[in-house]
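[job 0412] stage=fold_complex status=start
inputs:
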Amino acid sequence: MMEYIKKPMEIEDRSFVIIGEEMGEHNFTEEELKIVKRTIHTTGDFDYKNIVYIREGSIDAAKELLKGGVKIYTDTNMAKSGINKMALKKLNCSVECYVSNEEVAKIAKERGITRSMAGVEKAVEDGVEFFVFGNAPTALYKLMELTAEGKASPKFVVGAPVGFVGAAESKEEAEKRLQIPIVTIRGRKGGSNVAAAIVNALMYMVVDRE
Amino acid sequence: MMEYIKKPMEIEDRSFVIIGEEMGEHNFTEEELKIVKRTIHTTGDFDYKNIVYIREGSIDAAKELLKGGVKIYTDTNMAKSGINKMALKKLNCSVECYVSNEEVAKIAKERGITRSMAGVEKAVEDGVEFFVFGNAPTALYKLMELTAEGKASPKFVVGAPVGFVGAAESKEEAEKRLQIPIVTIRGRKGGSNVAAAIVNALMYMVVDRE
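[job 0412] stage=fold_complex status=done
writing structure:
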């Protein structure tokens, strides 16, 4: 029958070697490179080398939060699914997404806003400080609004909404308005898988893989 | 404050118009185009125009299965998360993923295979005929093996594993060995988000969006 590698970690290790060989010149630090490589790994798209933005000091800030057992909020269930549960558990961290929450759906309908926006409001009420956006520009805008109003105090944000209407703009605004540790995917690309990959890369810096 | 569109369906409709305007010349049928556009929508990557492969007759086959309330198997929880639950419900379809299943994890460990492979075995035992692969080349290979051995009879397959070790090869093999309705992403690109997008595009052909 067909011959193929059957060990996941072996596949992943070899993948990262190939990515390193093919990505060419860069100015990333060793830790930044781990994030960039993982976004390429999850998409098969070397363009991520050019569009991942990591504000100085953001990796250290994220690592501190993760070590402290932070609660993470994601804008989609897909991003939540993509975050490694074993690593989360080892770090005593947790991840929440409220877009399917009935109360949030009701509030969104009543107020004519997206469930993504209502979800962020609830997360802020819950005291979340670590936000991961892989899909919804509206969620990222809502966090900016709440921050500007002094209602939210995010300590780390992954801004990776994907798309053609508002996504690129939302990330550009976030870089300007959120003067906090932040990782973004510039332009139209991004996605829940990319957002989760960034969180996983950060977790694997502070916890052993299984 | 910032002005931005807050209606998800309006954002999606406008996105599809923009994608259509920017993607340029193509030879896709109207239904094929819906799949291709949705993969671009979920990734922000126009390269999908060149790498989506849809075997003739595959869309009709998938639509028939969906109308019949089929059980879908996905190789990742992320792909499962990305499939629209409201549309699934309207179609009386369901989606399963066994990689986090304890029994499957035990079998995988005992036999030294991936949980993805053991998950496919269990899905085949359960009589699943509609398979969606967004991550694991090993799972796609396992389905090919079981099919060659006469143990599995898949009726529709989405082959979209992403990556640098075995992913492209697994999809090339699948196109050759699985002479059934199939949609693949050629080359290294793909992913759970892309796999889910393909299923959603197919569902939206037979059921109204909310």
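[job 0412] summary: Chain B has a mean pLDDT of 95.
[job 0412] exit 0
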